[in-house]
Amino acid sequence: MIIRPLTARDRDRILEIVTATGNFTPQEIAVALEVIDDALAGDPEYLVNVLEADPGRVVGYECHGPTPLTEGTWDLYWIAVDPAAQGGGFGRALLEHAERDVRARDGRLLLIETSSQESYGATIRFYERCGYPLMARIKEFYRPGDDKLIFGRALRPAEALEKSR
Ligand SMILES: CC(C)(COP(=O)(O)OP(=O)(O)OC[C@H]1O[C@@H](n2cnc3c(N)ncnc32)[C@H](O)[C@@H]1OP(=O)(O)O)[C@@H](O)C(=O)NCCC(=O)NCCS
Questions:
Q1: pLDDT tens, 82-135?
Q2: Helix (H) or strand (E) segment spanning residue 58
Q3: Which atom of ligand 1 is nearest to the CA of 17?
Q4: What angle do CA 140, 144, 146 make, to 5 degrees?
Q5: Sign (positive/negative) of CA torsion 42, 123, 75, 148?
Q6: Ligand 1 pocket: which of 1, 94, 118, 126 to mutate (most atoms within 8 A of CB)
Q7: How many angstroms does the Cα of residue 49 sit away from the middle of ligand 1?
Q8: Coil, helix or strand at residue 139
Q9: 0.85 surpassed by pTM
Q10: Strand 57-66 with 47-54, pairing
Q11: Are strands 134-143 and 109-115 parallel, antiparallel or unpaired?
Q12: Contact 155/107 with Cβ under 8 angstroms?
């Protein structure tokens, strides 16, 4: 398994993966692709990495970036694993990779926003299992009955981690 930065050749495969998850609306898929295109164009707001389970076989990706107008707060914007490969630790590996990158860039807080809809239940359990407790809830944010949930984790800087080893 390797995790490497996005290249233009990954675009179609990422579209396949986000579509296959069944979790995203057409509008959300369009936004996911816009973000991929921005990242490919070199936009520093979006850092995207893909995971190859075997050489050349991309099964997931993640996108994170610095939260505008903050010092050291970052957002995980997207994370998705091909349903055929879910449950194999790839999502966790992608999230840990994003954490290492954020630490290396002096980030101290990584946030993940999601919806309270039933269809996100599995994703919520994934965040909690990966050490991201619920930090905030904005009721009825997306639409009546659909809250915005913000999960988060304080990250120690890479330097402090080195010293504690
Ligand atoms: C969320 C997602 C990325 C997780 O990827 P994954 O590769 O299946 O997750 P992993 O195998 O690395 O699981 C990591 C941990 O989460 C837990 N977990 C994952 N899916 C779970 C589920 N459906 N129910 C309960 N726990 C779950 C695993 O048990 C594991 O915990 P453990 O290591 O303590 O046993 C994947 O399910 C996905 O792509 N979902 C659809 C897209 C989505 O909703 N993305 C987030 C919004 S941008």
A1: 999 999 999 999 999 999 999 999 999 999 999 998 888 899 999 999 999 999
A2: strand 57-66
A3: 39
A4: 55
A5: positive
A6: 126
A7: 17
A8: strand
A9: yes
A10: antiparallel
A11: unpaired
A12: yes
